[in-house]
Amino acid sequence: MRRRFLAVFLPLMIAFSLALPVTASAAEEKTYTGMDVSIWQGEINFQRARAAGIEAVYIRAGEGSNITDRYFERNYENARAAGLKYGFYHYVTARSVSEAQEQADFFASLIRSKPQDMRAAMDFENLSGLTAEESVRIAEAYLERLEERLGHTPAVYSDAYDASSVWKSNLTKYPLWVAEYGVESPRTIGGWESWSGFQYSDKGSVSGVSGHVDRDYFRGDIFLTDEEQASGKQIRHDYSKANDGCSGSDTGQSGEYISYTVESGDTLWSISREYGTTVEILTEINRISNPDLIYTGQKLLIPR
Fold first, then answer.
1. Catalytic residue among 36, 69, 105, 180
2. May I ask which residue range the UniProt record assigns to the signal sequence (predicted)?
3. How many CB atoms lie within 10 A of CB 212?
4. What CATH number is associated with residue 267?
5. Residue 251 belongs to domain spanning
6. What would the pLDDT profile of 14-56 be if each residue is shown by its tens digit?
7. Is 125 a residue of the active site?
8. What is the pLDDT of residues 115-146, one digit of tens each?
9. Of the candidates 178, 205, 231, which is a domain's last residue?
10. Which of these is catalytic: 125, 133, 227, 274?
């Protein structure tokens, strides 16, 4: 009797389920048509790009520990004005853990005052001279430091080969933005369960962009959650309070904090003594994981 019931009822259940509308969870996996841009694209008309179907864009903020992309601010302002979803990526050149942390600090200093829809992304693709183990250690140090600075989990940009042969399982907790050209979907993504970004061409064309541009699809975890955006908003609030009225000075005062620019020879201990605070307070406010590691030019919040 039970078997007969299932034999009759099960096909009806399957047919009914196929007729149901798309669920909310499926809708959340909407794939966005996108591109990623840098100085190499020159002046971009983002309004025209949006009209041509572009919905999301990654913007290069800089490279290494001191190079800011010349079109970074312009691309950010114009992409935002066009109503696109956007995020920032950073070209990493580190060859040691300490360099990785310094470069993460630099990237964070460029973008933490800006609202973002998409995760900050690490572009660490030049691994020449490094073993796989060294590459992983550098990447881990960079990503951990960046997460501390920004308050959200960053993403990893990688080609399909490195995703499967270099980046080990301890990096798969970070959403993957994978590059592989000439295929409809990535053929391999290593230890990741799925991709969140897919760069499918480096020779794309988009209205509003002169010459070739990287083309992408973005979905799911590449976008910040409401909670992560709230955390970023609080960080921006703290830094804007500290930097109001700085007028180009190395130190600026506003509200509960002053903004201090680290000089050669400074330590957290010497700064804390000068301003009547403690190393523990400075590390907590500034999300510093290693109190012995600060760098010249770094901006710090100091309680008034």
1. 36
2. 1-26
3. 14
4. 3.10.350.10
5. 244-303
6. 343 333 333 334 345 799 999 999 999 999 999 999 999 999 9
7. yes
8. 999 999 999 999 999 999 999 999 999 999 99
9. 231
10. 125
